[in-house]
Fold this protein.
Amino acid sequence: MTYIIYAAAALFEIAGCFAFWAWLRMAKPIWWLAPGMVSLALFAWLLTLVPSEAAGRTFAAYGGIYIVASLIWLWLVEHRVPDRWDISGAIVCLAGTAIILFAPRS
């Protein structure tokens, strides 16, 4: 369930940030910011649903998921295929996420 929450959070964060990007860099109308802000609020709320005793650990583990989701966005929305360095970096980040999420804690 944690990965589903992280994936949904990543989608909302990327969509929200993209709304700001589109407004500032692609000359989209300012009203793009309204759904972008709602999307960012949903992202923040979703992260509170992750079962963890520490916010920082939740955010750190989320980082790897965010990176992979960003590369999927790059491919599907921006129509730019991630290269081998993108994919290699994402694999390294996912390994870090797995260590943070599944490490034995005392």
Notes: Residues 2 and 51 are 7 Å apart (CA to CA). The longest helix spans residues 2-25. The helical segments are 2-25, 33-48, 55-76, 84-102. The chain has a mean pLDDT of 94.
